[in-house]
Every structure is written in structure tokens, then in C-alpha cells.
Amino acid sequence: MEQDSSKLLICAVDLGGTNLRVANIDRQGSIHERVRVSTPDTNNPNEIVSAIASAVIVCANQAATRGEQIQAVSVVVPGSVHTDSGVIVNAPNIPAIVGFDLGQALAAELHRPVSLENDANAAAVGEMWCGAGRPCQTIICLTLGTGVGSGIILEGKLWRGIDGTGGEIGHSSVVPIGGARCKCGGVGCLEVYASATAIVRMTREGLPNHPQSILHVPPEVDLSAKEVARAANEGDAFALEVFRNLGEYLGIAMANVVNIFNPEMIIVGGGVSESFDLFAPYARDEITKRAFPVPAQRCQVAKAECGDDAGLLGAAWLEFGVR
């Protein structure tokens, strides 16, 4: 007997370096049950498999009480993955799973189909499906958090590159000579100028030249990007300058993206996007100055709408497209 597709769900898993979030999602993009636990701090990948499996089982049992079933499990990870094989290529924040066939291990544990995707790619898909990119088919999504992730959607299809590592706009160079060194080994990457980490670095480096700033704190006191944003919103001139600089560097990268991909929209998400209004006008100015006029005028720059759920929604959409 054929199953009622309206009662089939995707169990989406967002495996982060700190938290593991799981949710049941239907074909309309509605999120049902949620589970959130800490990601195991371990060198044993099987402990991570067990944590994911336990959370998925909780969601599956809750769905069953409503007469619905988990069709498949879709996992997003903060790193590069071989989507065909399920092997993790790179995951700096979860080194235990690098080189591990997470997809096969989870499928064996859960007895369900399992797919994997990069978290920034999934976030781009989520925004296209349920967020700021709904009217569009060709979008670029930049996730500004601790680093800078990105996803590219071309004519409604996720573009991963030949090896599944494409779309790393965060590691395009915006200061090719004399720029700050990035953890990737490169110099002048967008990530070191437009992330939360970059905001703190640029603030620390510039404070000695701005004695009147309210951001002066003892060296042993942690300074966060949120505190810099708060100071900017209160009118602190130096904090506003930090966000202007961030916007200009971001705009350089966006102008390159506009000339290369001619997108309908560039969407900015991640924690730094909470300060969108502080940097977006400068980014738009750089696009206008640097990109070809026709694609620059066409391309919208928008704030993401799905928040932390973007990756979960994208994971579900990708899996629904397969089943």
C-alpha cells in the first residue's frame, strides 16, 4: 500500500561544533518537533553517531504519535562533504568526523536513508525555499558568523563544484597584498574582514587610535562582535567605522560575485546579519562602484529571514527533491 506523502517528513539534522539540532519538517516547510542537545566533545565519531541517532529517534517517536513517519534523514555539517558517499572531507570544528563515513554509519544505525550536505549550502537552499530568496532562482547566500560561509543557487539548483567544495566565497581575497592571514593559510580572505571574529580583530587593532571610544576595555576582558554592534547603535564613531570597513570589504566580494554569477539576490545571514543596517549600505555602494552597471542594478542585497532554521529547512528541501 502506497504511503500518504502528506504524512511523510524529513528529519533534518544541523550538526554544529557546539550544538546538535534536529527537527521534523514537512513538504510545506513547516517545522514540527525539535530536539536540541550539546554536540559530544569527543575524538570518537561513533559517539557523534549515537547522539544524532538518539535525537532522530525522539523526533521519529513524536511524529508517530501524530500518525506521521520519517521518510529520510538529512544532515548538514560545518565543513566539506562528499554528498554521494557521505564521507566528511573537512570539518574544522568537529575533527572527530573528518574522513569518517557519517552517512553510512547513520543509515546503519537508523535503518533509514541518510544524506549529508554542507551547512552554508543548506542555508542558501533554505532561504530560497522559505526565506528572503523565495521569489528567486539564482541567489548567493553569505553566512557571516565566526567565519564566512556561502552557498550558490543557480537556476534553482545548488552548485557544489566538481569536488563538492565549491562556493567558498569567504576565502576569496579582498586584500591580496598585506592583508591579514586567514586560518585557511591564505592572506586577505573575506572571512578575516567580514565575520564576527573579524569585527573583534579590527576593533582591537584600531582602539589605540580612538581613545574616546566606549569600547575601551582591559586586554583580559573579552570583547564580542555584539558589543561592538551595540556601541555602533549608540553612535560610537569608531564602532561605526568598523562596520563601515566591514561593509566595504563585503561589497568588494559581492561585486565580484555580481560580475561572475549575475545573481538576482545576495542574501546575508548568520549572527553578524543582526547588524545588517550598519554595513549593508556600504556594501551596496561598493557593488555600484565595482560591478557592471546592469547586473549591479538588478541584484538585490537582502537580510536572511530564516535565522538558525535556514540549514534545517535546506536539508529537508534537498531530501524531498530526491525522494
The spatial strand order of the largest sheet comes to 3-2-1-4-7
Query: Beta-sheet strand percentage?
Result: 15-25%
Number of helices, where a helix is a run of at least 4 consecutive DSSP H or I residues: 9
Helix and strand content put the structural class at alpha/beta
- H-E string: EEEHEEEHEHEEEHHHEHHEH
Largest sheet entry: 5 strands, mixed
Total number of beta strands: 12
Radius of gyration: 20 Å
Categorize the overall geometry.
globular
Task: Give the domain tally.
Answer: 2
Q: Given this structure, which CATH class of the largest domain is correct?
A: Alpha Beta
CATH superfamily of the largest domain: ATPase, nucleotide binding domain
Helical residues, percent = 25-40%
Q: Write the CATH architecture name of the largest domain.
A: 2-Layer Sandwich
Question: Overall mean pLDDT score?
Answer: 93
Poorly predicted residue ranges: none
The termini sit apart by 17 Å
CATH topology of the largest domain: Nucleotidyltransferase, domain 5
Q: What would you say this structure looks like, in words?
A:
The two termini are about 15 Å apart. The chain has a 5-stranded mixed β-sheet, with helices on both faces. A 5-stranded mixed β-sheet has the order 10-9-8-11-12, sandwiched between helices. The longest helix is centred in the last third of the chain and has 25 residues, at about 235-260. With about 325 residues, the chain is an alpha/beta fold. Helices cover about 35% and strands about 20% of the residues. The radius of gyration is 20 Å and the shape is globular.
